[in-house]
Amino acid sequence: MLKKIKTSSLVLGMHIHAFCGPWLHHPFWRSKFTLKGQKDIQKIQQSSIKEVIINIQKGCDVAPLKKTQQAKIALPTTSAEPTQPYIPMEQELSRAITIYAESKQAMQCIFDDVRMGKTVDVNTAKSIVDDISKSVMSNSGALISIVRLKNVDEYTYMHSVAICALMMAMAKTLGFQKEQIKEAGLAGLLHDVGKANIPAVLLNKPGPLTEEEHKLMKSHPKEGYKILKQQYSVSAAILDVCLHHHEKVDGSGYPSGLIGNQISQLTKIASICDVYDAITSDRAYKEGWNPADALKQMSQWTGHFDQVLFQTFVKLIGIYPIGTLVKLKTEKLGVVYEQNSQSLLKPRVKVFFCAKTHRYLNPEIYDLSDISITDSILGPEDPENWGISNTEQYWAVKQ
Ligand SMILES: [Fe+2]
Ligand SMILES: [Fe+2]
After folding, report:
1. What pTM did the predictor assign?
2. 351: part of which helix (H) or strand (E)?
3. 369, 3 in Cβ contact below 8 A?
4. Each residue of 376-394: pLDDT tens digit?
5. Cα of 206 from ligand 2 centre, angstroms
6. 159 C-alpha vs ligand 1 centroid, how far in Å?
7. Ligand 1 mean position to 220 CA, how many Å?
């Protein structure tokens, strides 16, 4: 399978199929070979050739998130750690599904401990973060898409896991150091720990809350802060996320009504991830929105989020997030299977339905960035309009 990429995206192990540009301008007498040395990459990048075609069947593919692009939107001055090798979606989904099950049990224990008046088991929390970190650093799309599919009754625990994964993916995209990425993960995992002190009937109430109930629910950031403050190993940044993740940049949030940069960067990241997961998950009182609609709605809420960080978040999740049903120019329907770091408009799509004949097809993955595939996305589709149920079966499964 051939893919055109910028020379700035070259990494060791990629198989060069051809150079884009006159052969006189490229620095090698041959054009088909695998990159085995850093010197070869430098030679290409120093030449006038700006793009190459790689064969991803014979060598490495591009990582889903490219650090050189991320640096343009990165706010911190820290430099990123070396990238963990990219793991293909097919493989990473299997690991993500296992992490999902294990972290659910561990989070349940953490919340149960707090309910019984014990302290937070920070070591267990850190080991969950370590597991999630491995998955997010290899291919963040897998876990952040899997945790969105949580059931109503596991929302409290898995919401924490989702925010952990999303915050780490954001931190990675923004070029944070390894330790800062883990701190972001721990902040996400513990941000709602104060909910352990809110009665379960209220957390899972299937209807609107009374004024009194609303007040009680809004006490969870301060409750969480009190719980975490007792732990010497929880950093000030994590305490801040716990206390302020419901603040809004226009000052209309709670508990302190902080405005703009009075809210820390990590807390602003938490706020975006928190709302995205809350509105895309099925809850006791409403069904979750599909991710594409959620991003569209969030983009219209003025004064809620930091706009620069929100744009970074959209780039992370994609215009057509994983799991979105899309229609292609060739009248085929498929679900988005994996993002493409080079172009948000050209993800990998698992095609399984012919819109012309209303017939199911043998599922097949189309990599829309492959130059041999001329198809493209027309737009998202509502599965209900096509009588398609359970689109998850086409992507959220162990291989
Ligand atoms: Fe919260
Ligand atoms: Fe939350």
Report:
1. 0.79
2. strand 348-354
3. yes
4. 999 999 999 999 988 999 9
5. 18
6. 10
7. 7
